[in-house]
Design brief:
2 copies of one chain form a homodimer. Chain A has 336 residues and is an alpha/beta fold. Chain A has helices at residues 5-12, 16-23, 31-43, 50-57, 73-88, 102-114, 130-137, 162-175, 191-205, 222-235, 247-259, 293-309; strands at 62-67, 92-97, 119-123, 143-146, 156-160, 181-185, 214-217, 241-244, 269-274, 287-290, 318-321, 324-326. In chain A, the strands form 2 sheets. The first copy, chain A, has a 6-stranded parallel sheet, sandwiched between helices. The first copy, chain A, has a 6-stranded mixed sheet with strand order 7-6-8-9-10-12, with helices on both faces. The interface between A and B is large, with 53 and 53 residues. The structure holds a DNA duplex (16 and 16 nucleotides).
DNA sequence: CTGAAAGCGCTAACAG
DNA sequence: CTGTTAGCGCTTTCAG
């Protein structure tokens, strides 16, 4: 049904290889011939079958992005950066939602390599076990990990400076005079969130008068923020500042706090992390740590493409982006 | 490098065709043979090359989703529904961001069909010109249009009842006693938004005391909402209620209004459309029209898969989802 | 039930 | 510069 390279060859009176060369703009084909072939191809509305080409070249010109959930604003932004970069380079991007489920993640890995994607962008799923790491690298596909500070591993990584971000948050809260501080974060061992907590706790401990924050783990989403904030109010009603490990959690925190009659920032200061677009429009506008999400996605495919170009096994690349404090109105000085 | 079906054949002492049959669980292969082959395949860590298979079967088991921008919360939700449904059926989903640009859209269409995706989910890009419509259907790939009420066209469609949603909004605002009403919407001829406006305007006109709303077109995002609201305040400062065609626009509207010192809902009521997750956490919580985004994405791939199954050219399918008013705190009765 | 052979549509040496 | 010839890795008749 579809018109193939053979049809074009027959119709233009040359061999298929000539058609292939002419259409792929390679050297070694007379200008007249090329013109003619191109014209015929156009007339016949010939569309090369990339699957067939992929079979012989071994390149599918397809990349994959595995995130926990695309509905998470952070990932949506990363995905857009990644897709744009891929598009510019002539690559397609297949989207996978892993829900942070290692098993689902592995299934995707399998399926993707069977389809011969040229590379995989993967959001750090929880912590990678040795076995999983092996399985992944055994896939034989270049992989770059998102939100993962360079591990001892073999994978390339791209991330924001989460630890510095945590420290930045701590510094800010300290400067505001807070002493009863809580950090609401995601699941234990959650790659980058763990880094944030680390930086936060360390900076607090390094203060002239060290502070040890309350640390609560939960789900990294709006609901998680709500639940954690409720738990916090029950267990530590005297806390005056909360640093949530993501903006979504911060939104949930604010909601729960407000519903309980606490004013923000008058009664309690709240900080987030990510600086998603909506951070500026919630009430009150959220003070948060900005990380360049779009750029992270973009950089990740650039690295991936580089890896793909030079036949897989070159040394891994690492890239870390700086973060910055965005001061808005969800925090204020601790009342005397 | 990769182990192929040949390796498995050689290693297990049978012909490749037998391996193929054994592994694909087809009839006509002795149980012992199958077991043996399966064992060998496992030992060799054989992974079928789906590209090769696709070349012969003509199915890639890949679907594509073309949206304007995945960062739009609405699309993220749709994408998740779509991806989940695709995953369950063993299909992959490639993500494309068209930015509502007809040219980019067409380029994606081309590229996708060259890669032989089995079907395309496409968000209505502006209005489809006759030529574009032809080009699309000429692609020879089943397509289902999102957010498009059944057009005269050949494509299947899935959408929410936008017109009814617009009417619902009008009714509500009318009930609240508003008479000076504005509708802030997206670009002209923007498929579903046009429907919303239509239902809104019609219902307003059908009131006992008909109302003719101010209609402003702009970008369908936060910034668009800001700009339109500013324009509105300049041109029609007496408006007491605003219906934005999307929640994102409503957020922008609220922001601009607040910055100008208007209180919401005391001075002006604001409604949105979509009911994205964040609608409940902005201040004030947004009264809006809910549409089942996840379900829309899901239903779309289900239809698409059905189309794929029965060899493309069957009659198109249409599915419309009901919407409902979600009353929160961004609207109130017009003050006397 | 299994093997042999053809071929999906294209690229890539290798001749000429 | 162009044609011939092999495949890429798999499925699928068609024999046996």
């Amino acid at each position: 049904m579809a018109v193939t390279i053979k049809d074009v060859a027959r119709e233009s009176g040359v061999n298929v290889s000539t058609v292939s060369r002419a259409l792929n703009g390679e050297y070694g084909v007379h200008a007249d011939t090329r013109e003619h072939v191109v014209a015929v191809a156009q007339r016949l509305k010939y569309r090369p079958n990339r699957v067939a080409r992929g079979l012989v070249t071994g390149r599918s010109h397809t990349l994959a992005l595995v995130v926990s959930d695309i509905r998470n604003l952070f990932f949506a932004e990363v995905a857009r950066g990644a897709e744009d970069a891929a598009y510019r380079a002539g690559y397609d991007l297949v989207l996978c939602n892993s829900d942070l489920d290692p098993e689902k993640q592995m299934r995707y890995g399998q399926s993707l390599m069977e389809k011969r994607v040229d590379g995989i962008l993967m959001n750090s799923v929880a912590v990678l076990s040795k076995k999983q790491q092996e399985q992944l690298s055994g896939l034989g596909v270049p992989i770059v990990l998102l939100n993962r500070t360079a591990p001892r591993g073999v994978f390339s990584t791209v991330c924001a400076d989460n630890e510095a971000g945590g420290a930045l948050a701590a510094e800010y809260l300290l400067k505001l005079g807070h002493r009863k501080i809580a950090h609401l974060t995601g699941p234990r061992h959650h790659g980058n969130m763990t880094e944030r907590a680390k930086g936060f706790v360390a900076r607090l401990a390094a203060a002239r008068r060290p502070v040890r924050p309350v640390l609560l783990h939960g789900k990294n989403n709006f609901q998680g923020g709500v639940e954690l904030a409720q738990k916090l109010m029950a267990q530590h009603p005297d806390v005056t500042a909360v640093f949530a490990a993501s903006d979504m959690m911060a939104f949930g925190t604010i909601r729960a706090l407000m519903e309980a009659g606490r004013r923000i920032p008058e009664d309690v200061s709240v900080m987030g992390f990510d600086n998603v677009e909506l951070a500026s429009i919630v009430h009150p506008p959220l003070t948060t740590i900005h990380q360049p999400k779009y750029e992270i996605g973009q950089a990740a495919v650039e690295i991936l493409l580089r890896l793909v170009g030079r036949g897989e096994h070159q040394g891994p690349e690492h890239r870390m982006f700086a973060v910055e404090l965005v001061e808005r109105q969800s925090c204020m000085e601790r009342k005397a």
